[in-house]
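Researcher: Let's do a round of design. I'm pasting the structure tokens now; please hold your answer until I've finished.
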């Protein structure tokens, strides 16, 4: 089986441990108590299940926070559709407040992960027998907690350090640099006890290489987080992964397949990924899901495109399928400013985008039947209700036809066809009954390690293992494009390569801030240049729960 399950039933097991309730006069006959659970390696794995379920529970919300606050992804308004309390517009235009739904939701998501880890660590410390299995289990849980704290550090800056389950005192914020040091120390202490094997047995679980990946990402951003550059430390952490020989850059022929619903432990680049499964209740990965209730046809659109044409091995519908009113579903699109980085016609990464005129896999144009007024809400000619047929054509996002300052694209065919759509996480066409998808979601890939090392060297770190920043960037490019290798390198070249390589992978906000591009203007009215927005505010809900918290500067 492709998917790895992390003991979903363990939620019920832990419920027994943490909140069992029985009549006093009834003797327990089959209760799992600390003296019998968790003891074995299998039981320890089961007990740790909730932390992985917690990570998977709202990673899509984390994606929204990281990607829709950048030029990479935008969700415009379509008349009355997708207003949603203006939470998308606020992210795009950098006008969010401490009451923004995404800001509040992801604070809860991350703190829930930390709380779940604290709780499970407490149980295992108290119950499991001493030995290698216990040490590894605790190291894995602490690494997952460190990952959650890294996400909080990156998003919210000064956050409370609360690592003791059952503590009743309300913590105040710790300075960002102190949180950085805590994460670093936790990961370094955990590394000796983490596994070094890859493949099915450790897929979706923290290994030494996940710990080194988090450290590398922290060190690369250390000047942002702490004010002190740590480029040599970033290189050293990357070298631990590179020298293992366990990972490789996927060639162009399999780059796109890394993100298909058929991906899994066989991916050579995946250092740590979140397994998703359409059969589970929280297998809902938004970037791979398109609104089936709006129109089914879009599910068949991804098989072909004039932008390079993806021929999907899972689905091969033809123009004779009988589907009508085929149009892009869902408003997620990219800005013209971001798409400009995809300027190499020989680059396989172009194929993750739907652009221009659209065709069925058999080469026939995709035709849409509507009315004159349905196609263009500003139509003023004769017979507005008369039939109008056109070939589906996705156009770049510029300004709204409703005005240069409008975030509303309108509600007609022209509006719905505006914006280039990303299909990196190709939907599973065989799943017609739910929004859930089978695409596993990588958090750290090997190409990121290679490119982080290149950037660290370029920014002043000492080259190692015979590599230069230029050779490392070209080692990724050679597996993505048939165009000539770069002969010179500038910081903007590295940024452009990161844009192309990690589109839709929740790293772009992190990159824009580090490269000093977060305050640029783009898209539908994003002109705000407030530098304090490089971190999000602490939500009102968190401040109400914990009055010891201090709001981040500017909010």
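Researcher: That's everything. Go ahead.
Model: Designed sequence:
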């Amino acid at each position: 089986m492709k998917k790895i399950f992390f003991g979903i039933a363990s939620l019920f097991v832990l419920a027994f441990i943490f909140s069992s309730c029985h009549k006093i006069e009834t003797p327990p006959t089959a209760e799992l108590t600390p003296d019998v659970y968790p003891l074995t390696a299998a039981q320890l794995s089961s007990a740790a299940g909730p932390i992985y379920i917690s990570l998977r529970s709202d990673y899509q919300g984390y994606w929204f926070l990281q990607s829709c606050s950048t030029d990479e992804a935008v969700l415009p308004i379509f008349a009355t559709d997708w207003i949603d309390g203006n939470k998308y517009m606020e992210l795009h235009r950098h006008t969010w407040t401490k009451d923004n739904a995404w800001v509040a939701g992801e604070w809860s998501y991350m703190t829930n992960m930390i709380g779940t880890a604290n709780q499970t660590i407490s149980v295992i410390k108290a119950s499991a027998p001493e030995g290698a299995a216990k040490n590894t289990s605790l190291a894995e849980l602490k690494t997952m907690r460190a990952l959650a704290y890294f996400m909080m550090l990156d998003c919210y800056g000064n956050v409370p350090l609360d690592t003791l389950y059952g503590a009743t005192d309300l913590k105040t914020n710790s300075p960002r640099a102190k949180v950085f040091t805590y994460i670093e120390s936790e990961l370094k202490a955990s590394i000796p006890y983490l596994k070094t094997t890859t493949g099915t047995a450790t897929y979706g679980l923290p290994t030494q290489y996940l710990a080194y990946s988090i450290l590398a990402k922290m060190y690369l951003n250390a000047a942002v987080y702490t004010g002190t550059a740590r480029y040599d430390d970033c290189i050293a952490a990357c070298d631990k992964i590179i020298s293992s020989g366990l990972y490789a850059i996927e060639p162009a022929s399999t780059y796109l397949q890394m993100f298909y619903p058929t991906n899994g432990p066989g991916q050579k680049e995946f250092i740590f990924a979140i397994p998703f499964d359409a059969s589970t209740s929280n297998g809902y990965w938004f970037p791979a899901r398109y609104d089936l209730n709006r129109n089914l046809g879009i599910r068949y659109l991804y098989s072909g495109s004039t932008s390079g044409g993806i021929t999907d091995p899972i689905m091969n519908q033809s123009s004779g399928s009988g589907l009508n009113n085929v149009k892009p579903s869902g408003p997620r699109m990219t800005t013209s400013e971001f798409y400009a980085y995809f300027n190499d016609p020989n680059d396989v990464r172009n194929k993750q985008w739907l652009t221009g005129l659209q065709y069925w896999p058999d080469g026939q144009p995709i035709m849409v039947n509507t009315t004159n007024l349905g196609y263009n809400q500003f139509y003023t000619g004769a017979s507005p209700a008369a039939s109008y047929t056109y070939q589906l054509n996705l156009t770049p996002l510029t300004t709204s036809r409703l005005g240069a300052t409008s975030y509303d694209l309108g509600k007609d065919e022209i509006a719905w066809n505006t914006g280039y759509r990303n299909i990196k996480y190709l939907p599973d066409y065989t799943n017609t009954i739910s929004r859930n998808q089978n695409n596993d979601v990588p958090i750290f890939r090997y190409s990121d390690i290679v490119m982080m090392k290149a950037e660290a060297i370029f920014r002043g770190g000492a080259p190692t293992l015979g590599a230069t920043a230029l050779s490392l960037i070209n080692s990724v490019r050679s597996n993505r494009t048939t165009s000539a290798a770069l002969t010179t390198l500038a910081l903007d070249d590295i940024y452009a390569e990161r844009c192309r390589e990690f589109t839709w992978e929740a790293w772009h906000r992190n990159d824009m801030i580090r490269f000093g591009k977060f305050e640029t203007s783009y898209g539908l009215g994003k002109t705000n240049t407030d530098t304090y927005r490089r971190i999000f505010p602490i939500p009102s809900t968190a401040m109400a729960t914990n009055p010891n918290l201090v709001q981040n500067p500017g909010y």
